[in-house]
What does this fold into?
Amino acid sequence: MVEPALVTDGVDSEARRHVLRTLASDTGIGWDGPDRAVFEERFDRHFPALFRLFHDLYGARHDWLDQLTDLVMQSAHSWAERPAELKSLDAEREHNSGWFQANTMLGGVCYVDRYAENLAGVHARIPYFKELGLTYLHLMPLFLAPEPHSDGGYAVSSYRDVNPQLGTMQQLRELAAELRANGISLVVDFIFNHTSDEHEWARKAAAGNPAYSDYYWIFPDRSMPDAFEQTVREIFPDDHPGSFIEMPDGRWVWTTFHTFQWDLNYSNPDVFRAMAGEMLFLANQGVDILRMDAVAFIWKQLGTPCENLPEAHTLLQAFNAVCRLAAPSLLFKSEAIVHPDEVARYIDPAECQLSYNPLQMALIWEALATRDVSLLTQALERRHNIPAGTSWVNYVRSHDDIGWTFADEDAAELGINGFEHRRFLNSFYVNRFPGSFARGVPFQDNPRTGDCRISGTTASLCGLESGSASAVNRILLAHSVAFSTGGIPLLYLGDEVGQSNDYQYALEEGHGSDSRWVHRPHYPASRYAQRADQETPAGAVYAGLRRMISVRSSTPELAGTRLVGFATNNPGVLGYQRPGDGTLVLVLANFSDGPQEVHAVTLSGFAADAVDILTGARLRLDAGLLLHAQQFIWLRVTPRP
It folds into this structure.
């Protein structure tokens, strides 16, 4: 046993020597000279950070240094086993760390079974992905999960086995390699806050194995659960009140989300090392990006809300440091549907290099409903710019519901009551508001309070289902923001051909109580068959998006995430600037239902001549601009000296 912490600030040289001695004595790693040299060079660079982070988390334990040593050894074995082509990718991306910030990036997301039946079906769709321009493919949870208690794949019973209905781990490896050969990065979910209650660890814990009982938050009676629940909110009260459920043997286990999803206990370093092993296993299958699920909830501390705690960030940084040793090309994408200030805290090159942009998504829908861009303008000016070396993932909608995540204090500055405004938006998007074009479905509806979240495909929410003549324009307008503000635009596959809600979702086993399945339809074959016919809604949407994708990929100003606000002095027209190297793209987007003018004096900071790069049209700014309803333009302009 190594003595407890020799120092607590900075890297202790004796600890480093101890780890290196252990590494040198391990004859089972099986690496050659160059691989060992690469690992040792990375160890020199990244061990200081890993040491500090691991000590911050576990330094109070007598065995923390032994645990850290085991973690480094585990990382070394994973690196030695990493396929040669992935080691080459590591080297390439270490020299091009901003690869994911390119203006050629385009993401797509789908459920394997619903979009392509199985992994072989996804493989067969690679030519279409190339046609669309995808460079990033997120396959929704595809690991082994028990039915009907799978939560759409988010209740994982094995991180090393693919759901057999979808394929095998070998097929996933082969798919990752083929995607990589076609310039497409593979993204999967890393559900690391909890496991299924049918995971091997959970089964052993349920059987009373003390080592595995400590993998979860399990208590002998209600004393500690009652104490925690004084400050912890209920997430799914319809599923179970509070945050704990009683086990058959009378013990109580923490289940933040569903009763069959047991929260992992990261105060136990065995859990950290076990999950690091699962993470590195997935990296070695060829996964490029991990969507880090439910990051806000991963650390628990009595007397706190157990959300967004500082240790949650330390955990993510420690996982990241492990990747820098053994799979340095792997990136993290945070999933934090929380207050905008908290979302931003997860975005850092040493934590999550990518992040969903839930605020922008919600405010695109808010602006479509109100025909007023004030909140969206405020958010872009105040909350869009993020640290260098990171990127947003911008989306119009995802697999999940739409929640109104704007900050009440931001709304109050504009004279908007946040509570009442959310009630209006909920009413509007579930067609309870007179004149609404939307055909959304409420999720977690509470008619008494008006509180709910919104389910629905982009087309159905934009009015295509209701027959609105402006539906296609709204679909393209919404996507124009996601495509031009900066970051990786992400399409829920099928939306690019205007797929509608699937009202038969409730007939499928396990889906009846979850309205989000309404916007997870099966592959819309008839819509895809029409994508070349611009006289159809499917073809019009597809052509409009393909034009944006093409123009974006040839416009260097649209790389990265830097954005500068632009006041249009018109509440119906959104404006912002994307500066390049001596050049500038000015975006203007009319969210109103009628023509809107941006006056010449508003545009007087630019030279009179401009080009709309979407259409090639040459425009004069000295006479002002008139934008038709739902029209957007991307102007290459020259600032006046």
